[in-house]
Task: structure prediction
Amino acid sequence: MKSLGIHILVELFHCNKEKLKDLESIKQVMKKAALSARATVICDAYHKFGEEGVSGFILIAESHLSIHTWPEHRYAAVDLFTCGKHMDPWIAFDLLASDLEAEHKVSMEVKRGEVFQDQEE
Amino acid sequence: MKSLGIHILVELFHCNKEKLKDLESIKQVMKKAALSARATVICDAYHKFGEEGVSGFILIAESHLSIHTWPEHRYAAVDLFTCGKHMDPWIAFDLLASDLEAEHKVSMEVKRGEVFQDQEE
Result:
């Protein structure tokens, strides 16, 4: 068996509340995280919810990086779906955790698309 | 404890290969799935990888819906991150599985942002 992709879900707790509200700050750190992890950025989109959090998504050649923030809980949900071996997703997460000043982080790695080695139909 | 969001990862196996290659078909089924699940669409973006698969996402007011397809393996990875209670994410997945003619699907539900009820800092 081989997996076609790895999906990593990361919980960032006790972040800097002001950074989680700041659309420009989120855009910058997401782009920096993607590039640092050696992802190839295709396009991105962000949305700020009034006085509340930010959602953002970067489509990368290796799949995607997303973020959703809840400043009122000092929490950000990040996920990175990657295929291929040249990326190092953990660089992206360390950078996001550091830039958002997360005091606590939890991650979960899920193998996606487990197929037999020769399964091309 | 309460969770701020629910992240559902779905594996769609043995799909219709031609549909997984078809950018317009993927766009249509994704939009239909989001709207059927009562999501509020903010924006979307898609990318077709040469003769291969398609990646796409819809940023929704309730978080996001994404897809990555591997036609050569007749496989699609879908994930839906949702917060709030008015959406029914399973409607979206049933519709995607049906439209992409998946013969087998596996799903995993992950609670995101588990915080104490009164945790607003």
Q: What stands out?
A: Chain A touches chain B through 40 residues (CB under 8 Å). The longest helix of chain A spans residues 23-36.
